[in-house]
Amino acid sequence: MSMRPKGLPPVPEETAAVARAAFPKGSLAIRVRDRLAEVFADEPFAEAFGVRGAPGLSPGALSLVTVLQFAENLTDRQAAAMTIRAIDWKYALGMELADTGFDHSVLPRFRARLAEHGLERTVFDRLLEHCKEAGLVAAGGRQRTDATHVIRAVRDLNRTELAGESVRAALEALAVAAPAWLAEVVDVAEFAHRYGERINGWTMPASKTKRERLAQVFGQDALTLCRAAWADAAPPWIREIEAVQLLRQVLVQTYYVHTDNRGREVVRKREADTDGVPPGSIRLASPYDADARWAAKGEELFWLGYKVHLTEACHTPPEAEAEAEAEAEDRERRGNKDGGLLPPNLITDVMTTHAAVPDVQATAPIQQRLREHGLPPGEHYLDSGYPSADLIHAAAKLGTEMVTPALLDHSRQARTAEGFDKSAFSIDWKARQARCPAGRTSSNWNHVQQHGRDAIVITFAATTCGSCLLRGPCTTSRQGRRMLTLQPRELHETLAAARTEQQTDAFKARYRLRAGVEGTINQTLDVTGMRRARYRGLPRVRLQHAFSATAINVVRLDAYWSGHPLDRTRTSRLTRLSYQLAG
Q1: CA dihedral 267, 269, 274, 279 (to 10 degrees)
Q2: 440 touches 462 (CB < 8 A)
């Protein structure tokens, strides 16, 4: 399929006349076409299409359909139907009234091309650049980031189900790609009886012994297939089939192969205590989505899937910073006290990872992308999962202040509020000594590497601590001496200053601004259905989230253009009245 760049076609006169008559006040689709037509160009998608072959549909038009689809949370069939029966969609796409649109199968093929060529963020980035040129977003302002969990598009599997379903997925792929080879290496009739239907825990034997035996059979079948695929006589391309590669990973992660006392080969499930199991960040959870991972947040939330981080600009009047959160959000959405509308809070970055990636690993990539787009924040509001001493220090050197609670000291003394934590010791960096609350100085100062990072270990002599009256609350070390582990000076002082500042009332009042991003996440979940992954695999889920963020920006821009800012707040009318009377 080839592409001939042409962009969105002109709106036919008849379509325009009918659309204006049907929507005298306009609609989101009409305003998007009138104001953002240049965003949906064909040229940025050129690398995903060839130069030879039959010309396909305009990728710019398909990207506009996808944005409108997410803005209304439609399925592919519903979105394709809208291009036929919705007058405002026909106007947006420049279609004749009698145009019959396209088949819904075009949309998944279009998304597959974007994901394959790394063009998931193309429309999002182009819209952001358009808003930057229009002065709606700018560098140096306030931005805030938060994350939420995304549930996978595949079913949950226990370890036995995972093993059996992985064998079944490999067999299904080989039955299509190499039927003759498969018939040579396995008993097709026996395997068809065992794996003809999907593996379901509800239909497995009730007896624990029989279930364990079934798990062993799944492991033996997986080993048989893998040995056949990696045999010298097997065609090399057999091993390149994704389902076969995933089966090998599941076999290694789930089973332990050894030889018993009689010299017989035994395949059994791995036990965490004796055999070890891989960490959740690399453990496969489904043969149909190799990127989904299990994760937990607190003691109540467990999910299989992904995590999405949303960053938005926040335009807030200065006087709102010292007021309650609800009043600040109300002012932010309704405009300033002079009655003018504030620019919309637009999403400036969207980042998707698998669920097991901690928030702190997303901080630097988010800030890097914002700088690449010319939108580095002057103040970046985040929760306590995102910062570290080196991130706070590095961002400050680049002109970004991270307004975030720094992680507190987790030493025993700090947790129990008994004894003396690190802040009770004075550090003389030039003399390379620490002085304890009793006035005694350390004896050793050693530079070390801990978990791949520089650190400083300070030790007090046992003779120094042995005669100290404060030794009991200070240390419980068997050696009878106190040790401190510090980060390098710049990072230590940065972290200490952040911990001190976050205890002040001024910081707490300022930090209220971060809460507004939770409203953006809720809006994205409600409008686009982002809580559940529509597709399988990280590239396609990234695409879903990029188009979801684009759709939210379009919705907010439409509200801004039409003079109706988002006015749904967390406060009731009575509460807002009380704030007005108090003012």
Answers
A1: 130
A2: no
Q: Which two tokens stand for residue 492?
A: 């230590």
Both tokens of residue 556? 């907010």
- Scored b (16 or more CB within 10 A) or e, 454-469 reads ebbebbbeeebbeebe
- Grouping H, G, I as helix, E, B as strand and the rest as coil, residue 55 is strand
d(CA 140, CA 446): 40
Listed in sequence order, the residues at least 6 apart from 76 whose beta carbon sits closer than 8 Å to its beta carbon are 69, 104, 105, 107, 108
Cβ neighbours of residue 135 closer than 8 Å, sequence gap 6 or more: 343
Taking each continuous run of H as one helix and of E as one strand, the counts in the chain are: 23, 13
Both tokens assigned to 138: 């700018």
Tell the burial category of 238 from Cβ atoms under 10 Å away from its Cβ (0-12, 13-18, 19+).
buried
Mean pLDDT, the chain, whole residue set: 89
Tens of pLDDT, residue by residue over 152-169, are 999 999 999 999 999 999
Which of the pair, 500 or 106, is modelled with greater confidence? 106
Q: Which residues pair with 295 in a beta bridge?
A: 303
List the 483-486 sheet strands across, edge first. Answer: 444-450, 453-459, 483-486
3-class DSSP state for residue 431? Answer: coil
pLDDT by residue (tens digit) across 165-194? 999 999 999 999 999 999 999 999 999 999
How far apart, in whole angstroms, are the C-alpha atoms of residue 503 and residue 214?
Answer: 57
> CA 541, CA 152: separation in Å to the nearest integer?
9
Looking up tokens 């300033």, which residue turns up? 336
pLDDT digits (tens, 9 = 90+) for 521-575: 999 999 999 999 999 999 999 999 999 999 999 999 999 998 876 555 556 788 7
Task: Give me the mean pLDDT over the 488-505 stretch.
Answer: 89
Q: Maximum distance among all alpha carbons in the chain?
A: 96
Contact 8, 33 (CB under 8 A): yes
